[in-house]
Amino acid sequence: MEFTEEIVTDFESTVSEVIELYQHRIQWLLQDSRKVFGVIKGTKVGLLVDVSHLSYGPRLLDFQKNLLCLIDEQLCYKKQLYCLSFSTEISPLWESPKTINVHVLREVRQWIEELEPGRGCNLLKALRHVLPMKELNSLVLIVGSCPDQSFEILCDYTQQCTLGRKVQIHTVIYDCSNPASLTVLKNLAEAVRGCYHCYSSKGENFDSSDFHLLLQESQKAKDLLKSIKQTFQRRVGDLLGSERADVSTAFANTEPSSFFPKPPKHKGPLVIQTPGILGKTSADWLKTYGLKAKKLDLYQVLAPNAFSPVEDFVPILKKTVSSTLHEAMMMQFEWYDGTIKNIHVDLPVLYNYQKLLAKMVRIYEKRVDWLSVASRRIWGSVYERRVVILVDISVTNSTYISHIQHSLRLLLEEQMSDKDSFNIIAFGSDIVPWQQELLPSQPENLEKAWRWVLSLECKGSRNVLSALRRAVEVEFKDKDKHKSQGLYLLTTGIPDQETHTISAYVAEACRGFDLQLHVCLFSVTKGTDSSGIIPARYANPTETASAFKEIVQAANGRFHWFGEAGIFESDDISSIISEMEKAKNYSQKCAFLVESLKQRSVKQSVKPLTPEGHSNVLMRNEERKKQKVPSPKPTAVLKDVKDNHGAERNTPVRVVAWRPPSARAGIPPAQTVKEWPQTENKGKHKPRKQAELSVSVFYTEEGRNVGTIYQRYPKAMHIRKSVCSVTLPKEEEICSSKEWLTKYSIKKLKLELSRLMFDCTHQKKTVECLHKKVSAKYCSIFPSREINGVVKHLQFHPKELKSYTEQLGNVLQRYVQRVQWLLSGSRRLFGTILEANVCVLVDTSGSMGPYLPSVTKELTSLIWEQLRKNEVRFNLLRFADNTESWKEYLVEAADESCHDAVQWVSTCHAHGSSCILAALQRSC
Question: Does pTM surpass 0.85?
């Protein structure tokens, strides 16, 4: 882009005019009634005046004077007006809003002059009187004391009444020094998206939403003007004195990006800040503040009022019958697993739930804003305790070195003071570390690191893999002994190495350890930089971002991509936005439920008229209801009962033969109780297992009389299996893997999946009335798995499954550490030496020539790492054409003998053939 000096000057003058316009607007707001009450919006205004704070005397006269000024300067130009004063009770001037004219204004002035002080501030009662008036589009609340009701009550009622309406709420805190009143009314205005104005006759605590917005815009304009002056006067310098200033060329020679705000004292000492908020990733933060963590998942809220459709086979009807009552009385809603549930819609619960969702969305918005400012918009949230920073200083970044330095300055000032240790590694073609090891994050170390950063110069290409290897193998060489470790890579382009090579390395380096790699990608170039330097590998910004995403995923880290226009992509911000979209989806589903309920209510309220020819249908139905059920016919059972018990009881026993409630199905006549088939109830009523009966016999005190105690023991209850807590030793035991697994295998730790599952009892059974085998209908609801030919169900709660997964993860991590230990040092070639007496046979025949140097090196490691450390009695024997032993007997592993053994091993050389049998015979 090219700008002439005239264009730049005109732009500066325009910005200056805007600043002056803002200042005039602020001065205008601080005059007359606008200073006391602010600017009243809307054309049909409801004026609610609190008189509880007034007292007879000058305070009342000043308040009346200010109200009269408000009427004459602002409210007289409105279309309609409604006035009401309130304290404990309300006192409206009219029953409904009045169109403004001379007579109405005279009545209002007279009403103001007759205001009298009261007690209490019943703001809720005033709102309940005014908000139902649909004619008003603006409410002005003038309050001088703390309302009697809490903020939650006032906010709930106001939001309910203004839902779907465009009503402007303007709250005025008049000459009130109570902090509670200021907080309640300000939060009320913000909750309903209204305006607030705070006035004090003493000039204290003045605040206004309009005033605040103007100050913000004025400050932005001043910062812009300052940036223009710094950029074109200090950076470009003499270029503005010419006829035309090529700004793009000037930026290429100095700073082409204005994304990073560079302070005037760039090379000054650090201003170290202590982080006020504990750093967390958004994923960890959502475990505490997510919708599910706050129990605001829609399905969690609806679960108490959700019912599954009931469908069962009725033997007497010989068909499957579905329930219809729930479908008729409730709303149908698709559940998260795809099934349909019958939901009882509780409107107050859903309304409160939507309010909580809106509150959580506001919290998420604040989190996104917090992640988008200061050093977090460059580095994200740095939360690990041990941190290594990798900085790209390749030659393509030579024009951006000041921005790289400023990025590191922000990080050192804002996020590094609370860490345990840190280091900085700069890389181009070569690796340049600040220190050879991690140092504590003390202020003096941070200042030294900053001075070192100021001395960095860009050169070479982007050797990312070497920088990663240096950090992993030197700074994090003891990564298995620490937790919360992080690598932060700041770069501007594609690495020199292939993406899959770096991904494979970081995946292997981070697997099994608490170590993550995070990438901060700054897009500043498109293939070449402004100086025409071509990088070692070419990739456009999108391809570069895709490559680093793959690397980050392999290292379980986070990706942060930003540029001159702002943040393009951030895993932390994406997680929060995803949660916000989930909240929006839940809110839409709630609205769908409420709307469906309204439509059903409208349909049920509209009933069809009964035709004239059938006007007596209701009368007939009522007559049918009044008829009594006829008595049953006597059966053989009744006769037996009367014959056997008639003499003992005065009231005869009556047994009514059961009939189904429906008369449509073809059902045989009622039978006597004795004739009922016994097979019908076999499937429905299974005889319960009786409790065990214990009989105890004892002699009484009277002669040989014997007493007996019958005692029933309750049936043993099923004990729910729980997930065992696992604790594995950190130190490695010198034993075989088989022996080690006898103590710490999945089975021994009681973490087998089969142990946590229950046998499936929903097997196919024969239904006699259907004459076929039928399987259980709800068998597929529970997660199932076939183990050893038996189908088993997993009946665990999500919390228990999460605990089980964590325990398995800890065990898997310990297994990985054991494998890595077995593959390290001399154990990689010789395994673990378990015996107390050992003889090592080494083949030195000619075929071992290429491999003998590495074998002798590993033998040296074996002698010191295992034989000496574990105090093993040992001997060495080499064989080729002949056998030769180091000693004639086993030797104790002392320092002197180990030195002698190492020296003897170094004399081995390959020659001749191999005589394995002779070597084995001699060793025995």
Answer: no
